[in-house]
Design brief:
By secondary structure, the protein is of the alpha+beta class. It is about 30% helix and about 25% strand. The model has no long low-confidence stretch (mean pLDDT about 90).
């Protein structure tokens, strides 16, 4: 910094004078700008606090949109050690009485004794199918004391809902323990273990799912020997329709023995006898799942009541955050007439806008339903404007009509046709009642064999090449191999084809499946995709000559592609995709599923946007980039920037003014200094003259 000597010539305090002059010019303006800045900063901060409180209220409000929390039933058992239960939203309120006489169990099979877990078994493939073991007349079958069935009066019926499992046993897994590891690594519904029973080592195979229709059939493709002997991998073959391993001579096929039979659970519910493959019974009563833990000696009561606890907590949060928002607004926009003090946001129009919008929404009403106002479900206000919550009134409302409570808060659709289901709405879907008109129902892709099957009974595929490949819904399978067996009827063969196709790893991974049937009228096999819509197709990519002859199927057969549903929602053409129809116009985003029925008028779908949706959307609108709250915050921040610019300009102006003052005072200092020098000179001259005259 340069050293100034202003005032040295005249003796004046020029620096002090300049400082005071600049301060007199600068300070009033600076204080005014700073006061404005402080007020605006306080407003910005207060608006941020209000915005945070709005967001908290919005989150609590959004949590009330989901319909499941209002309609969720709660199941309780009088004997939870024997039976427990759970209930979905489809469960009806009431009581059920149950008694359990038999629990379901899985099938277990064992091999003969081996000297070591490392004994070599062999290589090849294990093809495991699942089904039910009965006598030929369909009655219950019982094995002998050694766990073998009488193959002369026995049949194995495929479980059409269970996929076939193929396990490759290579040279790395050709021992007893290796086979165990390969089976467990396959990840199918079969587990394997090795047990030393004191006399040697046995491989034990267990179906991981209980029930009579989950018994196992194990077909072996042995790399070394045939599949009807007791050597190599064939030692693991298990087919109850073939001779047992204890027979004096080949052929064999029932080479494992049963340790535990697959059984269904037997129980009664409300006096009706029920059979279930699993101890978890979920298809007996709509919306209910019963877990059978042990047999009972006396009836057990399972009661179903409405569980409003989750929604009640949401309501408490809704009321709490609303009151906190209201307090925040009050604390930032108050006016105290006695002290003349005001809140940072007093007089801000955006606060009045927020309060007005929320008040209008909260005091509004729904267009239809058992409950149309928040006051109907326990929401009220005290004299000071605080929101109150009557939990008893809310719980009673949920018990009376949970669906109406759900509609009061969330987006909800109700179809009048039982085969039309509301699936979802979107942010652009307007509330209203929409007519549904179907011009085309959805269909599935289908392939009918071009020729009739060679035979309809005793179809012998034991010595044939049974391979084919298919393309379903645009996905190719690779080679599929049917079991080498003699099929009693064409329907049995149809079940085998379906099991192998649906068990194909490519199709299974893609969620693709088919239903295979045999039409006795035409003598032809039919393959139908499980998918609906224009992308639903079935085609034969390749097929062995033997199988083509047996089935009548060929690569030249032309299938029929499925069709998408078509029609309108609210008298406006909608977009079809499989069984789903999506609206446009006012119904934009409204999606319904047509699961059956015919073309024509199919009733209506009523769609409503409840309080939670409306309030949540309103708050989102306030806080968007063009919303009232954000716009005001941006305006205030711009004002702060403007004040900063004013301070910068003032600083620049004061610097220039100081330069001008300094130049002026410097000139004054020089002038005074010169005058003082002249005065001194004259004084000296006069003194000299007086002295001379006196002499």
């Amino acid at each position: 910094m340069a050293i100034t000597s202003t005032g040295l010539g005249s003796g004046l305090d020029i620096e002090g004078l300049i400082s005071k002059l600049i301060s007199a010019e600068r300070d009033p303006v600076t204080k005014k700008i700073q006061a404005q800045g402080t007020a605006i900063t306080n407003k910005v901060s207060a608006l941020g606090t209000v915005s945070a409180a709005l967001s908290a209220f919005q989150s609590a409000t959004r949590a009330l949109e989901g319909s499941s929390q209002y309609v969720k039933p709660l199941a309780n058992s009088t004997d939870s050690a024997s039976i427990t239960a759970s209930a979905s939203s489809a469960a009806q309120l009431g009581n059920h009485t149950l008694s359990v006489s038999q629990l379901a169990q899985n099938q277990r099979l064992k091999t003969n004794v081996f000297s070591s877990a490392n004994d070599v078994i062999g290589t090849g493939k294990l093809i495991i199918d699942f089904g039910k073991i009965t006598k030929l007349d369909g009655s219950a079958a019982t094995p002998d004391a050694n766990g073998y069935y009488d193959d002369t009066d026995i049949k194995f019926s495929n479980n059409t809902g269970k996929d076939s499992l193929t396990i490759t046993i290579d040279s790395q897994h050709n021992t007893l323990s290796g086979v165990r590891d390969a089976i467990n690594a396959a990840g199918g519904p079969v587990s394997a273990s090795i047990i030393n029973d004191g006399g040697g080592f046995r491989l034990v195979l267990s179906s991981t799912e209980s029930g009579e229709s989950n018994s196992m059939r194990i077909t072996v493709s042995d790399d070394v020997s045939g599949s009807t002997d007791l050597t190599g991998l064939s030692q693991l073959a298990y087919d109850v329709t073939r001779p047992k391993a204890t027979n004096p001579a080949a052929p064999y096929g029932q080479n494992l023995s049963q340790v535990q039979a697959a059984k269904n659970a037997n129980f009664t519910i409300d006096g009706i006898a029920v059979t279930s493959e699993s101890n978890t019974a979920s298809s007996v009563v709509a919306g209910m799942t019963f877990n059978l833990l042990k047999t009972t000696t006396s009836p057990v009561t399972v009661s179903v009541t409405r569980d409003a606890s989750a929604a009640a907590k949401g309501m408490e949060s809704f009321v709490k955050t609303y009151n906190e928002l209201r307090k925040t607004i009050k604390d930032t926009s108050y006016f105290d007439a006695a002290t003349k003090s005001v809140g940072a946001l007093q007089g801000e129009s955006v606060i009045r806008t927020i309060e007005s919008q929320l008040r209008t929404l909260i005091n509004g009403s729904a267009p239809a339903g058992t409950f149309t106002r928040l006051s109907d479900v326990g929401i009220s206000f005290d004299k000071s404007g605080n929101m109150l919550y009557d939990s008893s009134k809310f719980n009673n409302a949920v018990s009376k009509d949970a669906a109406s409570v759900a509609a009061l808060f969330g987006s909800y659709g109700v179809a009048s046709d039982s085969q039309v289901s509301y699936f979802s709405g979107a942010s652009g879907t307007k509330a209203g009642k929409y007519a549904i008109n179907i011009t085309q129902v959805a269909t599935q892709g289908k392939l009918e064999a071009g020729a009739a099957a060679a035979a309809t009974t005793n179809i012998d595929l034991t010595s044939t090449t049974n391979t084919l490949a298919l393309t379903i819904d645009g996905v190719s399978s690779g080679t599929i191999t049917l079991n080498a067996a003699n099929y009693a009827t064409a329907n049995d063969l149809a079940l085998e084809i379906q099991s192998k196709i649906n068990g194909n790893s490519v199709f299974k991974g893609a969620g693709i499946g088919v239903t295979v049937s045999f039409d006795s009228g035409t003598g032809k096999f039919n393959l139908t995709s499980n998918k609906f819509g224009a992308n639903s197709t079935v085609a034969v990519s390749s097929i062995s000559g033997d199988l083509q002859t047996a089935l009548g199927l060929s690569t030249a057969d032309t299938g029929t592609a499925g069709l998408n549903v078509a029609g309108s929602i609210g008298n406006v053409q909608a977009t079809g995709d499989g069984q789903f129809l999506t609206g446009t116009g006012d119904a934009t985003g409204l999606r319904v599923q047509i699961t059956g029925g015919n073309a024509g008028e199919r009733g209506t779908v009523s769609f409503s946007r409840g309080f939670a949706v409306q309030i949540g959307d309103a708050i989102s609108s306030m806080q968007t980039t063009t919303g009232a709250l954000t716009t005001r915050q941006n305006s205030l921040n711009k004002s702060l920037d403007d004040l900063t610019n004013q301070l910068d300009k003032l600083s620049t102006r004061m610097t220039e003014l100081e330069k001008r003052y300094r130049a002026q005072f410097t000139a004054l200092d020089v002038t005074i200094s010169r005058l003082q020098n002249t005065s001194s000179f004259l004084t000296q001259q006069l003194s000299a003259l007086s002295a001379s005259t006196g002499n």
